[in-house]
Amino acid sequence: MSHSDLRKEEIVHACKELYDKYNFKDITIKLISEQTSFSRPSIYNYFETKEEIFLALFQREYEEWSEAIDKIRDDNDTLTKDKFASLLAHTIEERERLLKLLSMNMYDLEENSRMERLIEFKEAYGNAVHSVKLCVNKFFKDMNDEEVMKFIYSFFPFMFGIYPYAIVTKKQKEAMEKAGINYKYHSIYEIAYTGIKKLLG
After folding, report:
1. Which of 68, 91, 93, 61 is nearest to 162 (CA)?
2. In angstroms, how far is the first alpha carbon of the chain from the final one?
3. Residues in the chain with pLDDT < 70?
4. What is the pLDDT of residue 28?
5. What is the DSSP string of 73-114?
6. Which residues contact 7 (CB under 8 A, 6 or more apart)?
7. What is the C-alpha separation between 190 and 97, in angstroms, rounded?
8. pTM of the complete model
9. pLDDT digits (tens, 9 = 90+) for 31-73
10. Could you tell me the domains of the chain?
11. Is 149 helix (H, G, I), strand (E, B) or coil?
12. Rg, Å, the chain Cα set
């Protein structure tokens, strides 16, 4: 890994550590720089905006998730829909940070990033889509191309809604109670598993 890559990795890691504690709006480049071994002006040699740093973190989350999906495909010869839904749901359960990123305003994140950063991110996203598609093709040979793509185009938008339903703040719970809404809370795994099973048919 080059010196430049190591610096980028340190910045993204600092962003990750902060994002596990704070919301996007509360994190600044100054705050990120305080978690690294170099100054704030130095960060601009690698990332022009805070959004680019978050996009790089997003990219890494997709890359790591793709590896987990590929492992499902490599480690199993056959899977039932129920078992596949369970294994895929577990990979999602382990990627709470990815789900949190998905619940953000993607338009602003992408609009405030350079094209080359955006392309790198889109490639990581595309690889995740491809990994899921390869799994579905391997384990469910009775599904035709149209059915596989229907699953893909339903599953990925579905993921955007998991975090807000599974991770609820104390303030949100209080508002729900005062609004008279009797909402049953479910875990990330429960929501993901149920959704995947339904989408598989």
Report:
1. 93
2. 44
3. none
4. 95
5. HHH-S---HHHHHHHHHHHHHT-HHHHHHHTS-HHHHHHTS-
6. 38, 42, 45, 46
7. 17
8. 0.93
9. 999 999 888 889 999 999 999 999 999 999 999 999 999 999 9
10. 1-46 (1.10.10), 57-200 (1.10.357.10)
11. helix
12. 19
